Amino acid sequence: MGVTKSDLFNEMQNELATVAKVLAHPARVAIIQQLLKSNACINGDLVQELGLAQATISQHLRELKSVGIIQGTIEGSRISYCINPMRWTEIKNQFNQLFDQYPPSIPRDCC
Amino acid sequence: MGVTKSDLFNEMQNELATVAKVLAHPARVAIIQQLLKSNACINGDLVQELGLAQATISQHLRELKSVGIIQGTIEGSRISYCINPMRWTEIKNQFNQLFDQYPPSIPRDCC
DNA sequence: TAAGTACATTGCAATATTACGATATGTTTT
DNA sequence: AAAACATATCGTAATATTGCAATGTACTTA
């Protein structure tokens, strides 16, 4: 196996899981935080900052791009990465839609 | 490989990634939503609700428990699962600490 | 245009995840 | 105590992820 049965779940559940998967690696969290921190848009200086090989960083960047949370613009021979503001807000809201479901308005008697 | 170099990253990054990994499966999102929805604390009725085998659900429950987001209490021969309120808030805050870093107070000129 | 720089992609080895049948453990009912 | 439940754990097959060296692609500078 090793393959998720995504047809069993609704779109919200699958989408949230997909985004969470992208955040589910410390290198990718670190990359995001670098982009947040750096005044100028950081590119492959990430290879210096984090201690991973260039190929590995590139792979992580691709996954971050795959859910649209970051975007890259070609800047001569370099590539400038940064947060995609629209998508950032969307993702933030997606998570908060889940997180704000608790505590429920009607109290529960459980546990 | 297949093994994350977690020593390269700080605690916040590793912890957020660990929690995100637990949310990174639609079945686990679905389980959480069932626990949120059900007035009484749902147990292995989850096997009925979601279309997965009992062993699979049990495995997902264990992962949710591993980060403390849910807790189970033995109720006779059954087990009653529910959200752990403290941990829920902690996790919500962890994510929002990241999410609220954007947009930055000082505007950026990038992209 | 050749050499250098920056980044992406490919290919591969090590490890992790997903799913489930089978089985173990513990509880309740008969 | 035996049978019937409820849940956890084990073992295993299929697939996914992580990391990197090697290589490809594209721009820049000499």
Automatic annotation (TrEMBL), chains A, B:
The chain positions of domain HTH arsR-type read: 8-106
Keyword set, alphabetical order: DNA-binding, Transcription, Transcription regulation
Name the SMART domains for this protein: HTH_ARSR
One Pfam family of this chain: HTH_5
Could you name the domain of life of the organism this protein comes from? Bacteria
Question: Which NCBIfam families does this one have?
Answer: HTH_metalloreg
Q: What is this protein called?
A: Metalloregulator ArsR/SmtB family transcription factor
